[in-house]
Amino acid sequence: VLDSQYGMYVWPCAVVLAQYLWAHRRSLPGKRVLEIGAGVSLPGVVAARCGAQVILSDSEELPRCLQSCRSSCLMNCLPHVPVIGLTWGRVSPELLSLAPIDIILGSDVFFDPRDFEDILTTIYFLLEKNPHAQFWTTYQVRSADWSIEALLYKWKLKSTHVPLNSFGADKEHLASSSLPGRHTIEMMIISLAQSDGT
């Protein structure tokens, strides 16, 4: 059921990112994973079920989304997975006290261009603190005018496109779900750019 708070719904991008995690499940045990904008937390739950040490987060201003994260954990027998409030673009005690992480997950966080810089500011902060980490993100192509390319350059980040067919997600139906449907979904991995400017 669609809700006025975006995080109360499983979006097509979440299914695609969950498929990527499933395709890479053998590399997940022991990895430290943070999902941002988690909402119903499908990717984070899959990562946790595959053996990753997961922290789920959503905006501290959206208590219903944080409760949705907790409910997803309980429904999937993951009561130990921490849920924290992290608001994009805001330096908070929760952000500052995060333990080291290997992978940041974000499905369909790039849906409102007004949030793009706040998201990338937070990602940059996390990657600076964890230089080996990567941000695995899926997004739905909604407008050819929306781009994060200039912001990636500004924040000294680089992106690598991940073809959906490389992990079996180039289909209309995944994992017995009607999602992603006919939506145009893309995936990329964002990391710190090298010091030589690449």
Structure report:
It is a single chain. The chain is α/β, with parallel strands linked by helices. The chain has a single domain, classed as Vaccinia Virus protein VP39 (Rossmann fold), CATH 3.40.50. It has helices at 12-23, 42-49, 63-75, 93-96, 116-129, 149-154, and strands spanning 32-35, 53-58, 83-85, 103-107, 134-140, 157-161, 173-174, 177-180, 185-192. A seven-stranded mixed β-sheet has the order 3-2-1-4-5-9-6. Strand 2 (53-58), helix 3 and strand 3 (83-85) form a beta-alpha-beta unit. Helix 1 (12-23) runs parallel beside helix 2. It starts with 11 loop residues before the first helix and ends in a 6-residue tail after the last strand. The model has no long low-confidence stretch (mean pLDDT 88). Its main location: cytoplasm. It holds the Pfam family Methyltransf_16. Belongs to the methyltransferase superfamily. METTL23 family. It is found in: Cytoplasm; Nucleus. InterPro entries: Methyltransf_16, SAM-dependent_MTases_sf.
